[in-house]
Specification:
Distance between the termini: 12 Å
Bound molecules: D-xylitol-5-phosphate, zinc ion
Number of helices: 8
Mean pLDDT: 97
Strand order of the largest sheet: 1-8-7-6-5-4-3-2
Number of strands: 8
CATH class: Alpha Beta
Oligomer: single chain
Helix content: 25-40%
Low-confidence stretches: none
Largest sheet: 8 strands, parallel
């Protein structure tokens, strides 16, 4: 499948939600028609911030039927994989930089019966994952340094996305490219044009004064107009 034909999806990150009403926010996101919920799991070690863990995610699981994906910003995440699956995540995204044995960790995710995905920090080249591309369903390219919501989009990641898309297509691999950080109406078009088809959206989702459904629709329309 070429980049132009890959389905577009918005994956809201609830990192910047009001945690006192996290459940309601997830219900509202589902009603707004988003594709999935992106959970930014931070351990305070791999990144200088702490967010939520399996118990919080599990408490929200019965409220919505949307797929959950966990972006694991966790040093050597092997220990947390099973609890994330038990909490109801159907995709686990592990950092190339945090796994000494990345190939083994992605296999462990597959063995748990969920979808394996890998994520690259801005400084990490595509080469770092060249030998595990056949093990994943999705590659996440960070367009900010992980750890915090609301950071400025790094347009300099776009050539990396394009190189990755070309490599995946060349190998005939059916793998989505997701992009995470600073995605907003101003940036999503260029991200889509570079070859990304799944978009993590944190603060821009919550900033839209017309609500989640409007934000979701607007972002999808802008991505569709730019996708090639
Ligand atoms: C950063 C996280 C992102 C981020 C998205 O560490 O992985 O998911 O919070 O938030 P915005 O869209 O505000 O950059
Ligand atoms: Zn994320």
């Amino acid at each position: 499948m070429t980049a132009a034909l890959r389905p577009l999806a918005i994956a809201p990150s609830v990192l910047t939600a009001d945690y006192s009403r996290l459940g309601e926010v997830c219900v509202e996101l589902e009603q707004a028609g988003v594709d999935r919920i992106h959970w930014d799991v931070m351990d305070g070690n791999f990144v200088p911030n702490l967010s939520f863990g399996a118990e919080v995610i599990a408490s929200i699981r019965p409220l919505v039927s949307l797929p959950f994906e966990a972006h694991l910003m966790v040093t050597e995440p092997t220990w947390i994989l099973k609890s994330m699956v038990d909490a109801g995540c159907s995709r686990l995204i592990v950092h190339a930089e945090s796994c000494t044995h990345l190939h083994r960790t992605l296999g462990a995710v597959r063995d748990l019966g969920v979808s394996p995905a890998v994520v690259l920090n801005p400084a990490t080249p595509v080469d770092a994952i060249e030998n595990v591309l056949d093990l994943v369903d999705l590659v996440l390219v960070m367009s900010v340094n992980p750890g915090f919501g609301g950071q400025r989009y790094l347009a300099s990641m776009e050539p990396k996305v394009s190189r990755l898309r070309a490599l995946l297509d060349e190998r005939g691999l059916d793998v989505d490219i997701e992009i995470d950080g600073g995605i907003a109406p101003e940036t999503i078009g260029d991200a889509a044009a570079s070859g990304a088809n799944v978009f993590v959206v944190g603060s821009a989702m919550f900033r839209d004064t017309e609500g989640f459904a409007h934000a979701n629709r607007q972002l999808l329309d802008l991505a569709a107009a730019a996708q090639r």
